[in-house]
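pasting for ref
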Amino acid sequence: MHGPASPGWLLVALCAATGAYCLLRMRSGVEEQRRAAGGEALMGFGMAAMAVPAAVFTPPAWAWPAYAVVFGAAGLRALWAARSGRHHLHHLVGAAAMVYMALVMAGSPAHAHGHGTSGAPVLTGALLLYFTGYVLLTGVRLIPVVAVTGGGPVPSPARAAGGGPPTGWGDRPELARACRLSMAIGMLAMLPAM
C-alpha cells in the first residue's frame, strides 16, 4: 500500500494477528462460528498481504486481479450466507472493499503504490463512512454493560446467576467482535491510501 513503512508494518502485524486468531476460532464447536471465522481469517491475511509496504515488496501484475477474484468469491459466499443472517452483510461489504482496493491497485500506473491526484472517489468515501460507523458501533458494543442501582453497580443477570454455560475462548462473542473491529480499523487505515 502507500505511505511510510512503519505504519504499514503495524497494519501488517494487526491484520496477520487477527487472521491467525480467526484461524484458531475455526476450532469452535459451532458450525456458524467456524464459517464466519474462516471468512474473517481470509480477510485478515488478505489485508496483511495488501498492506506490506511497497518499498519492501511490489506484487507482480497478476496479484491484484487474483485478489479481486478471491475476494469476489468471498463476497458471493457472504451474499449467499446473508440469506440466513444479516451479520453476513458486513462480510459482504468487507469483501467488496477488498475487491475495490485490488482493482484500484491493478489500475494504477505500473502497479505502483502512488497517490492519485483526483482525490477520494465517492466509493472510497462511502466505504470510509461505513467502516467508521462500524468501528464506533462495535466499540460501543464491547463496553461492558453494568446496571447501576441505588446501592451500586449490579452485574448482568447471567453473571449474577452463575454466568451461564461455560464457553470456549473461541466461542466468546466479544472476542469475535474485537476481531472484526480490528479488521475494520485496518480497513480505515488502508482506504485513504487508495
